[in-house]
Specification:
Elements lengths: L6 H12 L2 H16 L4 E5 L5 E4 L1 H7 L3 H4 L10 H15 L5 E9 L5 E12 L5 E10 L1 H19 L6 E7 L6 E5 L2 H5 L11 H7 L5 H13 L5 E9 L3 E13 L5 E9 L1 H7 L4 H9 L3 E4 L6 E2 L41 E6 L3 H10 L6 E6 L2 H10 L4 E5 L7 H8 L9 E6 L4 H9 L4 E4 L4 H12 L10
Parallel strand pairs: 13-14, 13-15, 15-16, 16-17
Antiparallel strand pairs: 1-2, 1-5, 3-4, 4-5, 6-7, 6-10, 8-9, 8-11, 9-10, 11-12
């Protein structure tokens, strides 16, 4: 019944009253040890949030000495962006509208770093129901928050890939077993006419779409890529689609070794049928020559490795293609070994990308996986790009023309004030394709102008041309 204690509570109170001072001291020491050695951060607070006791885990978590925390308000540790919500919950807790609350919020450590904490706070009340003390339990959830943010960024990136022409993909080539298509952007289903709702594109499906006369060369292309890892390959080949018929695809791929001995194959493919038709318009002999030797794959990025087209032959039609089973090693040409770096080109090519849109940054970071020998440095605004260019002169700058704190033209004008940065090679990136904007960019010394959404091959070929041995910008390693 309300207002009356239970027999069990009376028994515990009586036993506590009869306990000797020594026993009471032992119980206090026990609870103090539990508090201090807890695996989570703990605080004993006044109803207003003043820290009266704090354990070692909380001190370690927040980066403060114990004496620095005692007597301070816990609210002073809260990130300003989360303070309003915390104070609102405290008010409801003090007034008795909440028995306890749980928040996921940011705290500022002693060194200014941000830590994500899950905080459980409950209020202790006296016999009259008045708030006497609060207990806060803290769990560091920074790692989980980082993972959640990475997953959100990945989802945004995957959605953004739907707006670029062509398809990005990643293939796992294990030491043993069949290749596995780990990822392909949604445009891949369109390129190969696969219904994503009923049949998922996989490595076998890809081979089934390749033109019979080009299949042997495609398998040789994969083999050559594995023999010369980390060197991008450009390719063109035909596919035969159920509805569109014969289409020309073009792209690039690069194989990168994995710690377990396997290989990750990153690539980009786009439909270039119309471009090829325009290329050979009015010159039937050129088109006939292209059909006679349909597939051309060339190793790029400062090497002289190449695969010459083979005469058409009766290609194999594998039921389950693999890397080695459908190639004929005795027909593969002896390819020269990649050019080894010398003392004059040890430093990687440095590209500074000034961009305030995180999605565009994520996309370009994925594109640069096709050029592992290049170093991408990202500046989220004009001021940081200016500082980075002055401290570590890049070989090339990719400049978004609409930065958050200034325009791309403002950034270039600031760079031109410094003799050390005024002649940096720069390429403009913008969603504005109007002739006036392009002409303005030319007047500001931009050597090229790429429109968004970015054409992956256009960006790579632009940088390849600028960074080739014959046209490498001043300062390139």
């Amino acid at each position: 019944m309300s207002g009356k204690s239970s027999p069990l509570a009376d028994q515990n109170a009586a036993e506590a009253f009869r306990a000797s001072p020594e026993e009471l001291g032992q119980q206090a020491a026990l609870w103090e040890a539990v508090f201090e050695q807890s695996a989570c951060g703990q605080m004993l607070l006044s109803p207003e949030g003043e820290i009266q006791a704090v354990n070692s885990k909380a001190c370690q978590m927040l980066g403060y000495a114990r004496d620095a925390l005692l007597g301070t308000r816990c609210h002073t540790l809260t990130h300003p962006g989360d303070l309003s919500s915390e104070l609102d919950h405290w008010r409801h807790l003090q007034e008795g509208h909440l028995p306890a609350f749980r928040l996921e919020q940011r705290f500022l450590k002693h060194n200014g770093a941000i830590i994500w904490v899950e905080m459980h706070v409950s209020m202790l009340r006296d016999a009259k129901g008045q708030a006497s003390r609060a207990v806060a339990v803290l769990h560091d959830i920074s790692t989980r928050k980082h993972i959640e943010r990475s997953l959100r960024e990945r989802d945004l990136l995957l959605k953004s890939l739907d707006h670029i022409p062509g398809a990005l993909y990643k293939v796992l080539l294990p030491v043993q077993g069949e290749p596995q298509l780990l990822y392909a952007s949604t445009r891949a289903a369109e390129l190969y006419e696969v219904d994503p709702a009923s049949q998922r594109l996989n490595w076998t499906t890809h081979y089934k779409r390749v033109h019979p006369e080009d299949l042997h060369m495609v398998t040789r292309l994969v083999e050559a890529s594995l023999q010369h890892q980390s060197h991008p390959i450009q390719y063109e080949y035909r596919v035969v689609l159920p509805n569109k018929g014969v289409r020309w695809l073009s792209g690039e791929a690069v194989a990168q070794p994995l710690p377990d001995g396997g290989t990750a194959w990153y690539g980009y493919t786009n439909d270039i049928t119309e471009q090829r038709q325009n290329r050979f318009t009015g010159d039937p002999r050129s088109e006939e020559a292209a059909v006679a030797n349909p597939v051309v794959a060339t190793m790029v990025s400062r090497t002289d490795i190449q695969i010459d087209p083979l005469p058409p032959s009766d290609p194999p039609t594998p039921a389950s293609p693999s890397l080695g089973g459908d190639t004929q090693p005795d027909l593969l040409p002896d390819l020269p070994q990649p050019v080894q770096p010398t003392a004059s080109n040890v430093r990687p090519i440095r590209v500074l990308y000034a961009e305030d849109n995180e999605i565009n940054v994520l996309l370009v970071e994925q594109i640069f996986k096709l050029r592992p020998q290049w170093e991408l440095v990202v500046a989220p605004n004009g001021a940081s790009a200016l500082e980075e260019a002055r401290k570590h002169r890049p070989d090339i700058m990719l400049v978004d023309l609409h930065l958050g704190d200034m325009t791309g033209f403002d950034l270039i004008q600031a760079l031109e004030q410094n003799p050390d940065t005024r002649d940096i090679t720069r390429v403009a990136l913008s969603a504005d394709a109007m002739p006036d904007s392009i002409q303005t960019a030319e007047r500001h010394g931009f050597i090229d102008y790429l429109t968004k959404p970015l054409d992956v091959l256009a960006l790579l070929r632009c940088l390849d041309d600028l960074l080739s041995p014959n046209t490498a910008p001043q300062g390139a390693a």
